[in-house]
Each structure stands twice: as C-alpha cells, then as structure tokens.
User: What shape does this take?
Amino acid sequence: MNHQPTGYITKTIFFLAAICTLAVHKSQAQAELMPYGNLNGIRVQGQLMDFNTSIDVVGNSWHKINATAKERQRPKFKRDGDVETVNTAIDSLVFTETVTDIGKGKIKINITCNVRRDTSIIGVYLGLRLPKAVYAASQVTLKDQAMATEVLKDDMPTVTAKGITFKSPVQHFSISTNEAALIIRPQSDDLKYIQLYFPICEGTLKKGDLFEKTFEIKVEGDIDNTDATILLDAAAQGREFAGLGGNFRLQNAKTDPQVIDYCLKNLRVAWGRVEMPWRDWQPDMNTDPIAMADSSNLNNHVRQSMEMAQRLGQMNMLVVLTAWAPPQWAVVGKLKYRPTPDGVWGNPLNNDNTQQIYKSITDYIIYLKNHYGVEVTYFSFNESDLGINIRQTGQEHLALIKGLGKYFADKGLKTKLLLGDNSDATTYKFIYPAMNDPEARPYIGAVSFHSWRGWDTPTLQKWADAAAKLNLPLLVGEGSIDAAAWEYPAYFEEQSYALEEINLYTRLLAICQPLSILQWQLTADYSPLSGGGIFGNDGPLKPTQRFWQLKQLASTPAGLKALAVTVDKPAISCAALGDAGKHKYVIHLVNNSAARKVYLKGLPASVTRLKVYVTDKDHNVSQKGDIKVINNQAAFKLSARCFTTLESE
Assistant: This one.
C-alpha cells in the first residue's frame, strides 16, 4: 500500500531513492543458521522465509526429546564462504551439520551422526516446524511416495517419500532427500506450528556407527516491500540517553589491551563498568588490605583493575564497580564457579561476617578514590539473582542495599548501589523487595539489568516501569544477546548476530529508555574486533560489523531524551531521541527484512534536513547524503538488513 503524504512533489522526495540500497549479495539464498545447529529460515532479498529446524534425539518415548537449542549443548560454529558448519553433541551422539547456500532460496543440509556408545532410542531426526500462520492453508504434495500413510510409533501417522512440498497463497516450502525417507507427523497440541520429523537413524545404535543424511530445502514467496510509515511525537519526551557504555572486566592479559585501546580511541563511551577483584583484594579476613597495598603488596590483578577504572575516570566516564568472585571468608560453603548438578550457582554471603564484608568493599572504594582519583558512582554484585558468583534472594538484596548503602554514607562516600544488576530481564521480581521499601530508596543510585534473555516488550517494560516508579536512571549493565557466544566466537562475525544485537539495543532505547547500554565487552571477551590473536584469529586486528554498529550508536549526541515513535512494519525497529532546545534529533532504525520506502512524519518544524548514516554488511557508518524535510515529513529508501541513523542538521 502506498502511503503518499499530501503536498509532496515526487521528484523532490525521491531524488535520494537509492540512498541506502545494498550491494547485491553474491549468494542468492542466505540460510539463517544459529550456532547451535537450528535454522530460522532462509532469507530472500533480505526477507526471512520463516521455518525452524533442529536435530532431535527421541529417547524411549516421543515425550522425551532432546534437541539442539540455545545454551543446551556446547557447539562449535564456523563459516567458509557460503558453507556454515556446526559441530555439537547430544549425550553419546556427535553431530556435524553443514548448511550450504546453493541457489535462489535454496540450501543443502548435510548431517552426520557418529555414535560413541551403544544406544537404544526411537531415533535421531531432523525436526522441522512450519508456522501455521503461513502454511495452514497449504496444498501439500509428496515427492515419489513409496507407501501409503500408516500409523506407527506412539500412534503417529507416518509416510515414506523423498520429499514434501507446502504451497500456501504467499509462500512455498519444499524439503527433499535423494532417497526415500520416513516423514513422521506427530500429534501436537502446538497451535503455532506444523511439525514434521525426518529420520537420520533409528533403533539400536552401536558404538562406531556413522550415519549421514542430506536434505535440500527450497523456499519462495511474496516479498513484502510495501511502504512503511514512522510516526514521531516529539512532544512526548522521556528519559535521557547519555550514550553507549562498555564493560572493561580484564580477563585476557595478552589480547585485552589492543581492543580496549582501539575502542576507547574510536568510540564515544559514556559509562564504564569495571571489576572489583574482591577475592584478590582481601583473601584473608584478618588482614588489612589497605595496609598490604600501602606496603607495595597490592595484588597485580587488583592494580590493573584499579588502573582500568582510573583510565575511564580520566576520560570523564562515570564508573560502575562490580564484584564477581568473593573471598572464601565472605560466603557460606566452598566457593562455586560452576553450577551444581541441580543447577544452583554461586554462594550466599556469610551473615556472621557482615560488618567485615561492608568494611572490605568500602576500603576498596576508598583506596581507589584516594590513590587513583576515581569516585565510584555505583557498586553492585554481578548477577546475584543467579549467583555469578554471589547468590542472593530479593530480601537479601534489600538487606545489602540498606546495610552497605548506610555504611557507604557513614564513611562519607557518594557511591550508591545498583538495584538489580540482574542476569536477565526475566528475573525482575528479584528487585521488588528493595523497590518497594522506602528505607532502601536513599541508597539506590540506579536500576540495572543484563540483556541476555527476556526481550519481549512486556518484560522489558517492567524494567522501564521500575525506573519510572523510583524516578531513577536505568542501566543495561551488560548489553548483548547470547551469553554462550564465547564458545563459538566465529558467530560474532555473522551478519545475523550483528543485526540482532543492534536491533535489541534499538528496542531497549525505545522501550526501556536507559541512561546507557554497557556493551559486554569492549575488551577481547565478546570482542567487537577480530584478528590480533583474539579467539585464535591471528590475522590483523580489524573492526567487525558489530563495531561499526556500536560506533554509529555511540555517535548519538549526549543528553538527548527518548521520544515517542511508532512504526507500522514489525520487521523495522525504531528509536527516537531529541532535544527541542538544541533543535537536535536522532532516529535509529534497524530493518531486518527487505528494502522499502519509508515515510517519516511528525518531525518538528525546526528540522529541515536529515543526514543519513548506514551500517550493514557492506557499509561502515557511511554517510549517504541527506534528506530534505517538507511539511514536517521526510521520505527515503531503507535498504535491506541495515542499521540506519537519521540525524537533524
């Protein structure tokens, strides 16, 4: 549908029609393979033709399925041109999955299964889920059907054929093999998906057995490149965005310095989060850590962490100090750095040593201030809702805020505590006891959560509501999208990872209105750079697409406030920031689908032109000219799968 604004002159509007157009990709298809082995679909002209696959191991019942999934195994991922490879294992079954782009909307999947121990199961299958919203009204045909449909395996209908095709009014999907395969269609209560299973191996498997199956998948369908409309309400002003922040926890002595230097030289970083190596600061409760430090016995990791804080402070950054690993004397039980078999992380604080705990932390902050000139803005325990590495309940978190917060104040420190600093957005109930206790309020400086999980709008809105209720800033203390990605670091360089990360940040800006999003990390850990020996890559140090996206976001002028904005296409995420007094406005857009025209409405009368910056697979914060604004409106072409920023002149 064409949303042509009144009063526009066509040749005036579209003189920049190709402003953000992407270069044509060499590959006509683009499989969206996750690093743990599941396909999300195939992209055609940037648009995702949605389906999902997994490798499913069915035990002695169809009610017991162990499948490849995020954070369920420990996979490895790599790419070589148009070929992506995942190596993973489920119990004693070791899999190698390769996915190859072979033509327009077409891919090949090869799966090998290596049996490491005698195993008796119903089978190993390529699981396929097709969204009913797209395929429910499909015409279904079978390729080279070998036998009539029958009922096997827990009353599930099965059929043997070389493939199956679904043709819906808007999209076609087909999967085929070079040999007859049993297609199992389970009885499912899932209202969202059509489920199918294609066997890789079945029955009793012997140690040393090797099975291999190859499948081809082809998709085609309508490309939605209809016009999008963005509505800006510049009068609806929210909270301030100070700018991009970063985590600077030192973990890799050889490769951290080069990444830190590059990021601090090339990014505007507004906030920094550093580690308090508490375990190394005071390993013995009965030893005075300040006296030890003053006698030239300061632990090297402590010194380096303090110097990191000093460096950030000298760049006029506000600093968050966070403790991960505690000393043994400060907790109950032997220190745990991995979960127990029942999934419990970390250790609770030892209440018998509460005053010594408060003093130890405060001594560190005072020493950092007196010797390194850093006044810590906020203090936290990292992810104490989960236990990495100190575990607390919500009530214990409340007691810490009131007790340690008062201790800070009594010692004349301005440092306050973060409420939360949670592992994920999903654990928001952890902050409720402190949020609802008026006695805790004077000691809370800001609300914080980490963005690893829980991205739906209602969950994110709970954090925005908490900050609004307390009238405090909100920090995303650790920003990124996959807490296990360090195990398959090649995925950091994938376009799909980069776009998902900046898409989340754009949504966080719009929904949560944070004061800062602190990237995890601006060091070699989860590095936005590649090469330089990072994760074994000995090539030259260079920025990735993720870095350029961070740079584009970090270039947002300081102090702009969130503005209300809506967009009528779900594939586009949008966040707007502005300052009416300075006549400065910035709009960030992430398009994770096909190219389309966009009409932006509601711009203030003071805005007459918008500069355009684009980062995508082929452009690095490239300025693509400017757009003329007429009658508070602008029109432009948004390219496929890009991060675009519009900035008023």
Observations:
- Residues 1-28 have pLDDT under 50 and may be disordered.
- The chain has three domains: 10-21+226-231+566-648, 34-221, 244-555.
